[in-house]
Every structure is written in structure tokens, then in C-alpha cells.
């Protein structure tokens, strides 16, 4: 993979950084019984392709991620929350933006 990151500041600083690395990435999706989409991922990164995990390690990682996804799919939904909601930190942000 090849990525480029840019940093631009209001003072006029412009920095461009290029990164090259090898990756194995897999995305998995399923639907829970209530129709909600559930996603999980497996990834491994290395500076060079030769340093990526071998096929057996990737296979084991995919099996673990798949098992975790199936567990998430079968998990019960979280109960509704009926406790207090704290707005103290948000109030300061709204005030700083000119709101009341």
C-alpha cells in the first residue's frame, strides 16, 4: 500500500509524508437476527511484503475474526438505558460557540 499524508497549517506550513507498507486486510459482514448489520475486520501490516505473516497465521487470524463476528451476531441487544445524561462538558462547548 502507498499512502500520502498532508499537513497544512494556517501559518503556511505544508508537509507531505509518503508511506509505503504491505498489508493483508479482510472485511466481514453479516446481519443480526434483528436486521442490524454487524461488521468485523482482520488486518496485518508490515514494512515489506516479506515481513507479513505466513498463510497459516493469516488463516488462523481470519478464523478468529470470523468466530468473533458470529459471536457478535448472536449476542443479545444492549438493554435500553434509563439513567441520567450529563451535559456538563457540552454546555461549555455551546457557550464557547456563542450559544446559551
Structure characteristics:
100 residues; alpha+beta; two-stranded antiparallel ribbon; two-stranded antiparallel sheet; 4 strands
Low-confidence region ranges: 91-100
Largest sheet: 2 strands, antiparallel
Strand content: 25-35%
Structural class: alpha+beta
Shape verdict: flat
Termini, distance in Å? 47 Å
- SSE pattern, N- to C-terminal: EEEEHH
Radius of gyration: 22 Å
Strand order of the largest sheet: 1-2
Instruction: Report helical residue fraction.
Output: 25-40%
As for the number of domains, it is: 1
Q: Determine the oligomeric state from the structure.
A: single chain
User: If helices are DSSP runs of H or I spanning 4 or more residues, what is the number of helices?
Assistant: 2
Give a structural overview.
With 100 residues, the protein is an alpha+beta fold. It has 2 helices and 4 strands. A two-stranded antiparallel ribbon has the order 1-2. A hairpin with a 5-residue loop joins β1 (2-8) and β2 (14-20). It is flat and about 50 Å long. Residues 91-100 have low confidence and may be disordered.
How would you briefly describe this protein structure?
Strands 1-2 form a two-stranded antiparallel sheet. Strands 3-4 form a two-stranded antiparallel sheet.
Q: Secondary-structure blueprint of this entry?
A:
Blueprint: E1 2-8, E2 14-20, E3 22-31, E4 37-46, H1 55-74, H2 88-96
Antiparallel strand pairs: 1-2, 3-4
